[in-house]
C-alpha cells in the first residue's frame, strides 16, 4: 500500500479496535452531523457516539471490510473505513447491529443514522463502487498530511480492487470539498439529513 508522506499505512484488525474507536470518537466528536444525529445536548451523547464507532468497527471486521490505519512510527494517527461494492452494509444494517444501537443510542438516533446511510447509498452514481464511510485524523495531527496519505491508500485499493467504478464519500464540512477536489473527487449531489446539508463526492476509477 502506497503513502504520500513518511507516514505508514496498514490494514487494521480487531486487535486495534480500542485505539481505532478512540481516534474516531475524538475526530468526530464535534462534527455537526453526528451532533445532530446523536443529540449533542443529551447527557448520553458521548456514550452514544462511542457505541456507534465500537459497533461499526466490529461489523467491518466481522465482514472483512477494509479498515486502513495511518501510523506515525507506532502511533495510530488516522483511520479510513471502506465499504466494498459487495458490502452487506450498503444502505442498511443487521438485526443484531440495530438492536445494539437501539439499546445504546435510542430509536430516534438509530433511525436518523440508518436514514442517512440509505440516502447516501441511493445517491451513489454506481452500484459497483466503494464507499468511504469514515475518514478521520487524530486532532493533533490535523494539517500534517494524514488525510492525504489515507486518500492515497484508498486510491491504491481502488486500483487494485478489480472492476469497481470508483469510490464515494459524503462530507458535511465545506472545507472538505476543495480538499477532495484536489484529489480528483467530483461533486455528485447535495443531500440533507436532520437539517444538516452536505455533499456526496465521487472519485471515478
Automatic annotation (TrEMBL):
Recorded superkingdom: Bacteria
CDD domains: NAT_SF
Alphabetical list of Pfam families matching this protein: Acetyltransf_1
InterPro entries with a match to the protein in the record: Acyl_CoA_acyltransferase, GNAT_dom
Molecular function via GO: acyltransferase activity, transferring groups other than amino-acyl groups
Ranges of residues in domain N-acetyltransferase: 64-178
Membrane-crossing segments per the record: none
Name of this protein: GNAT family N-acetyltransferase
Source organism per UniProt: Neiella litorisoli
Amino acid at each position: 500500500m502506497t503513502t504520500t508522506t513518511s507516514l505508514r499505512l496498514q490494514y487494521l484488525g480487531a486487535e486495534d479496535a480500542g485505539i481505532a474507536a478512540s481516534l474516531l470518537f475524538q475526530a468526530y466528536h464535534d462534527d455537526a452531523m453526528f451532533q445532530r444525529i446523536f443529540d449533542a445536548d443529551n447527557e448520553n451523547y458521548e456514550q452514544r457516539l462511542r457505541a456507534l464507532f465500537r459497533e461499526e468497527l466490529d461489523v467491518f471486521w466481522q465482514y472483512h471490510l477494509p479498515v486502513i490505519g495511518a501510523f506515525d512510527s507506532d502511533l495510530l494517527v488516522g483511520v479510513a473505513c471502506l465499504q466494498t461494492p459487495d458490502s452487506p452494509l450498503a444502505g442498511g444494517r443487521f438485526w443484531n447491529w440495530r438492536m445494539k444501537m437501539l439499546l445504546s443510542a435510542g430509536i430516534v438516533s438509530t433511525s436518523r443514522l440508518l436514514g442517512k446511510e440509505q440516502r447516501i447509498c441511493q445517491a451513489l452514481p454506481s452500484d459497483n463502487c466503494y464507499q468511504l464511510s469514515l475518514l478521520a485524523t487524530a486532532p493533533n495531527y490535523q494539517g500534517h498530511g494524514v488525510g492525504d496519505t489515507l486518500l492515497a491508500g484508498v486510491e491504491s485499493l481502488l486500483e487494485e480492487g478489480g472492476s469497481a467504478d470508483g469510490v464515494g464519500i459524503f462530507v458535511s464540512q465545506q472545507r472538505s470539498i476543495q480538499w477532495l477536489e484536489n484529489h480528483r473527487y467530483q461533486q455528485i449531489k447535495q443531500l440533507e439529513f436532520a437539517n444538516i446539508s452536505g455533499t456526496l463526492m465521487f472519485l471515478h476509477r
